[in-house]
Structure prediction request, 240 residues.
Amino acid sequence: MTNLTGTLEIDPDDPGENAEEIKRPRGRPQNRSDAETKHLILQVATQVLLKNGYTATRMETVAREAGVAKRTIYRFWTTKSDLLAAITAERGEEIVAKVDKFLQTIHPESLDKLGLKSALEHILSEFAHIILSDQTVAFYRLVTAEALNFPEVATAFYREGPSRSSAMVARFLEQQQKRGLIKLEDTKVAASMLLSMVTAEPFRMATLGLAGVPEDREIEARVAMAATLFLEGCSTTPAK
Prediction:
């Protein structure tokens, strides 16, 4: 049942909404953990949403494609907007995990050896290759198409996507400012501007269908240029 806010709710008068089981081939039942089941559902839901759009996507379609009972989806997410927020969060986690793994290896000694510019380029490259992808462009089109009708969708997308990405870069910049390597008035604003330098224009062009997503070599060239321009503006020593 769809309420006036556009979210899906379980209808207590419709047994199909609560307990519809998806027919599976006979044999030993699959034994997945909750984490594995959630990941599977999110992967399938992403494809269904991108194909059908937010409004036309139904929970039973996601359940059928994932080969799970609809009540399994409702056990994890009670509304469609919750499911979309979870999809966005998982994509955010993918970026955070990659950058966190790298940041854990960047102690002051190793950073001095690697160089601030190389470290910054690595972080920006991780973001750019995920953001400047066909799937992210398609997902952004989906969100913007539904943003006015379902503001909770746009809120979830921004919170779990751009906001988290900017916060991660800001954290790195704060660390380097404390070490005296750069000087910034506001690391949060600087992080947002830096990410925009790398991704904004090619992402806009791809979203409007005026160009495809950049190739790897184009992304790396843009990352290198952005890092150089940025560090020349805020480094306490010349960029290397």
About this structure: The longest helix spans residues 80-105.
